[in-house]
Amino acid sequence: MSATTRPALARTVVTLALAAALAVGVAGCAAGGGPSASPASSDSPTNSGSSTPRPTGTSTSQPIEGQCATSDLTGSIGQGGGGAAGSVEVTLVLTNNGSGQCSLQGWPGVSFVGNGNGTQLGNPAQFDRSTPHATVVLQPGGTAQAPLKIVQAMNYPEGDCKPQKADGFRVYPPGSTESLFVKDGNVTACTTTTVDLLTVGALAAP
Fold first, then answer.
1. Which residue pairs, CB below 8 angstroms and at least 24 apart, start in 158-162?
2. pLDDT score, position 85
3. Regions in the chain scoring below 50 on pLDDT
4. pLDDT of residue 63
5. DSSP states of 77-145 as a string?
6. 153 close to 41: Cβ distance less than 8 angstroms
7. Which of 55, 64, 106, 116 is deepest in the core (most CB within 10 A)?
């Protein structure tokens, strides 16, 4: 190769390299200038190791810190404060059978059950939200209690009520999705959903 052709070849190589670099740069700008793929949300879960604290429980639907496990509770029906004409008020008592203290706060879910198999009869209890609902701490063997008003089924026409003797009550402690059975063979339910017989107050210390 002659000395005169070597500079010309070098210039050609440099020119091609510059052209290739320019093409890459233009392609990069075109890719970055358009809409990008959806970014990862800032709300996406992370493995930070943190955990959401349990709510402090202001309603019956949320558990509270130190919530009593339903498996540690038993229920019973005690005497109440009487009741208006055509109704009776009894006391729903929940006892802590666990080995440590636990807490309950709010209104228990209550409904009649029957047929010997836990079938719900009629509507669940309405909540009497006029009653205070402070947190109740139950020591082992301790109790919390709630007033339970039961309107007598005989107050309603048979066709409206469709009365049936109940086996007792299904009770959901506040904040729990697990229930327990409280036996009471002295109550009659309305099996229709047009009649409300039960009203329950918040749990309180005895």
1. 160/190, 160/192, 160/194, 160/195, 161/190, 161/191, 161/192, 161/195, 162/190, 162/191, 162/192
2. 77
3. 2-59
4. 85
5. EEEEEE-STTEEEEEEEEEE-SSS-EEE-S--EEEEEETTTTEEESPPPEE-TTS----EEE-TT-EEE
6. no
7. 106
